[in-house]
Amino acid sequence: MPPRASSIRQLLAAKARQGVHTAVHRGWDWVRRHGEITPHTPGRRKFAYLGEGACIGFPVGAIYGEPWISIGDHTLVGTHVTISAGFVPGLDLGPDVIVKIGSSCSLGRGTHIVGHQSIEIGDDVFTGPNVYITDQNHSYGDLDVPIGRQWPENNPVTIGDGCWIGTGAIILPGTRLGRNVAVAGGAVVRGEFPDHSVIGGVPAKVLRSHDPDQGWQPPLRKHPLISLDELAALSVDGLDGLQILQDKLREEAG
């Protein structure tokens, strides 16, 4: 094949690959947008409540038991998130909501919320990716029966308003987090923890807490870069506000 013909063929092949690439990504963007579950799509009808402005990203994880799941206004659920009530789809779980997620929450990609009795998540709760929250655990008291075949035990979970749960944290049955509790990534949490505390570890324990008279104990290392009012002002400025925040962080690090 002459050199010129070979070059033309390579150019056409490259353009074809670019065309396929563009088509695939545009098609996937279209699928993601139209696969989301919102208050304006048919999927909303299955839920006990799916609030105004709420959105469940596509592709979804395993979502079933929707009549016993309530998701508050303006809550964003990431992709591949599992939210389930009951063991399997199709069970009658009674008159009460089992999984209740508040308003203005953000659930990170790959998070699992598995409810059987009661999981209550407050307003403005944020999670990183791959957080696991459940109110049921296997029992192991019978030495002659495999653990997976023993009757499970339920214990309600409550997560207070404003909590932050870091990547990969596990929230076990019986956990009760107060308001504005920060959970370190990878923590395994069980028990009760007070408002305005920082917890972490396996098992999780209080690492820092706020005393009304003495402030944070142990004290915070330094003052925040900007006040909450300044942060709120930047948040409404879109990309320009985020750029200002990024510049401030770079200055602090430097």
UniProtKB/TrEMBL annotation:
PANTHER family recorded: ACETYLTRANSFERASE C18B11.09C-RELATED, SIALIC ACID SYNTHASE-RELATED
Molecular function GO terms recorded: acyltransferase activity
Family: Belongs to the transferase hexapeptide repeat family.
Classification via SUPFAM superfamilies: Trimeric LpxA-like enzymes
Protein name (Swiss-Prot/TrEMBL): Acyltransferase
Keywords of the record: Acyltransferase, Transferase
Regions crossing the membrane: none
Domain of life: Bacteria
Signal peptide: none
InterPro entries in alphabetical order: Hexapep, Hexapeptide_acetyltransf, Trimer_LpxA-like_sf
